[in-house]
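Q: Given only this backbone (658 positions), what sequence would you predict?
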């Protein structure tokens, strides 16, 4: 794993574009059309106002509105989400001209009103409109139903009539609702509005849905029947635009005649707002989302991370489609709200459409892994497509990172299962990738794909030396042995290299320390459970479902997070290996010190005592949560007691080994 990580360091690249030079290559009238895809799945885990803010931020791009379309995939099939976007469509007719008139840079309404200090004559009016919209949407979500008082016309009532008693999130016909249409809808200043389309794909309990990959493939098909833009942007629910000129920045690459014609996509880094000062959960994932993609950019380009990525539509189509409306050169001449266009859109959004087609294998996003983004980009690069990592000084997109440890560990465990599905598939990066792309890029993909096997050495180092110490067994070279220096060099070298990269990336030492701590915690929880889950799934015992990471913020959790206090409030099995290791390391360290004081023999056990001591420093938040804290974020007593029992059991059986 360490060797594969060196591939990222062979040819790192930093890029910069000069937007002012774009006018020499293209005028606004020459800009390609842009389709934006936003995915959501559960109005209670992903609040509709969060999705609405993301949509409004991209609808307000500095881009010709007649060339811009926004498609929202509601995989939960919730009328609450549709209602939220009906409200958003009305508010957008005021928000977009307000942004243009005042040259607003932060075009996510929620972020703007929370942070903006510059006010204009109509700011209070727009803010009140936003608050009223927010109250209506949140009231509807809280009540779980939509009062007729909130419906402004018969068209809205007719749209909601599709939600019958038989309509469930897992079993329902497709819903495609045009909320704004360029050719008809204007803002309050008479300016053209971008298209806004709500899509809930058809679902059946008897057919696989393929999670987010399936939802994005439906958006690919529905958008092809309506606007068929040659450029596509995919975004997560909470990943709002932070720079209105981002599409123009992308065109600096796509329209550059010197650029490789096989350039398939431009990936922006995932950057999160609301991270506390020292990033206690390592939620920024600086190494994975910013440092390593820069290293891949010098090869054939970074992988797709599921959001903040501009694609050429052509990368998703392996050739002519059996449905003429899905061909790349298909021109839509009719209104997107016409009966003919809507009929085709509903047809391609139906759950039966993909039967006996190449969707998911040769067309669209690829099926077969929970990390559809990583798998798709890997297979695209195997076919010769290239990518670019664009990391401007002002982040193009900002998202929310989970603010409790359990959510983060669960999310990473899901990634681990998907990554192992790629690692051991017929197109494994370590074999197929190395040959199909190039050796260094193959190693980069292999490093990600085999990420969960870090759990093996981490688990061994968390338990074996400490149990050996409790049995007075020395398993490392003595301090006077020349080999001892090799261990110290490897330890300090590996940690020092990562620390240097963090510092060069503009991060503090405290953030690096918390990141390496979370790497250890992930290794004993997410990586370990992900590996176990994959093995169980492989032999047919278990199947891992897709769980949406909650974007709902609990006030008490938020308060603890901002204070830099770990939150362990959930009695989850994920915490058991961590707490068990914390108990064993503490006991072995104390026992080792006592033994050294009695026997005056430090040399033979020095390395094990050092390792246990290092683990204790890393585990300090765990000891606080297990013993000292009384708030709701403390470690559940049940987990603490089970961990002590497991530690005792391991100690009892350890003499058999040592």
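A: Predicted residues:
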């Amino acid at each position: 794993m360490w060797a594969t990580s060196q591939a990222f360091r062979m040819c790192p690249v930093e890029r910069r574009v000069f937007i002012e030079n774009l006018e020499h290559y293209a005028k606004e009238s020459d800009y390609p059309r842009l389709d934006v895809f936003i995915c959501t799945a559960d109005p209670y885990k992903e609040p509709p106002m969060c999705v609405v803010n993301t949509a409004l931020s991209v609808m307000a791009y500095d881009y010709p509105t007649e060339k811009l379309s926004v498609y929202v995939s509601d995989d939960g099939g919730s009328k609450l989400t549709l209602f939220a976007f009906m409200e958003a469509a009305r508010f957008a007719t005021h928000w977009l001209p307000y942004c243009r008139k005042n040259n607003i840079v932060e075009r996510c309404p929620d972020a703007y009103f929370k942070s903006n200090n510059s006010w204009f004559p109509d700011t209070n009016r727009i803010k009140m409109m936003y608050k009223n919209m927010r109250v209506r949407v949140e009231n509807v979500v809280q009540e779980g139903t939509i009062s007729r008082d909130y419906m402004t016309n018969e068209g809205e009532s007719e749209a909601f009539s599709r939600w019958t008693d038989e309509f469930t999130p897992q079993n329902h016909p497709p819903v495609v609702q045009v909320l704004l249409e360029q050719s008809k809808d204007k803002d309050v200043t008479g300016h053209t509005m971008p298209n806004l389309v709500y899509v809930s794909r058809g679902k059946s309990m008897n057919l696989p849905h393929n999670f987010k990959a399936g939802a994005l493939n439906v958006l690919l098909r529905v958008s092809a029947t309506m606007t068929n833009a040659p450029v596509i942007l995919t975004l997560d629910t909470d990943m709002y635009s932070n720079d209105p000129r981002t599409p123009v920045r992308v065109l600096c690459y796509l329209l550059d005649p010197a650029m490789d014609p096989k350039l398939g996509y431009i990936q922006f880094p995932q950057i999160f707002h609301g991270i506390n000062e020292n990033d206690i959960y390592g939620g920024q994932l600086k190494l994975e989302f910013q440092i390593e993609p820069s290293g891949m950019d010098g090869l054939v380009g970074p992988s797709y991370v599921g959001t903040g990525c501009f694609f050429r539509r052509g990368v998703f189509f392996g050739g002519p489609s059996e449905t003429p409306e899905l061909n790349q050169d298909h021109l839509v001449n009719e209104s997107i709200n016409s009966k003919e266009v809507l009929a085709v859109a509903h047809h391609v959004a139906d759950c039966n459409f993909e039967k006996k087609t190449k969707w998911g294998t040769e067309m669209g996003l690829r099926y077969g892994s929970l990390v559809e983004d990583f798998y798709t980009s890997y297979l695209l690069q195997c076919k010769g497509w290239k990518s670019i990592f664009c990391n401007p000084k002002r982040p193009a997109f900002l998202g929310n990172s989970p603010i409790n440890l359990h959510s983060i560990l669960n999310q990473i465990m899901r990634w681990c299962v998907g990554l192992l599905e790629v690692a051991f598939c017929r197109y494994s990066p370590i074999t197929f990738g190395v040959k199909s792309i190039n050796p260094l890029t193959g190693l980069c993909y292999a490093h990600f794909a085999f990420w969960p096997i870090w759990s093996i050495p981490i688990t061994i180092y968390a338990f074996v030396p400490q149990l050996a110490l409790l049995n007075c067994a020395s398993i490392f070279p003595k301090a006077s042995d020349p080999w001892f220096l090799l261990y110290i060099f490897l330890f300090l070298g590996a940690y020092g290299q990562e620390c240097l990269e963090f510092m060069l990336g503009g991060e503090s030492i405290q953030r690096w320390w918390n990141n390496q701590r979370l790497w250890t915690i992930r290794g004993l929880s997410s990586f370990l459970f992900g590996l176990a889950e994959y093995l169980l799934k492989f032999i047919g015992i278990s199947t891992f479902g897709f769980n949406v990471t909650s974007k709902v913020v609990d006030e008490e959790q938020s308060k603890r997070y901002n204070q830099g206090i770990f939150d362990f409030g959930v009695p989850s099995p994920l915490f058991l290996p961590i707490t068990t290791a914390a108990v064993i390391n503490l006991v072995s360290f104390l026992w080792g010190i006592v033994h050294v004081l009695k026997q005056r023999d430090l040399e033979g056990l020095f390395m094990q005592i050092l390792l246990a001591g290092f683990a204790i420093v890393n585990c300090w938040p765990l000891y606080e949560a297990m013993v000292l804290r009384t708030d709701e974020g403390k470690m559940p007593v049940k987990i603490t007691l089970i961990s002590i029992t497991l530690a005792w059991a391991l100690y009892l059986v350890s003499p058999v080994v040592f």
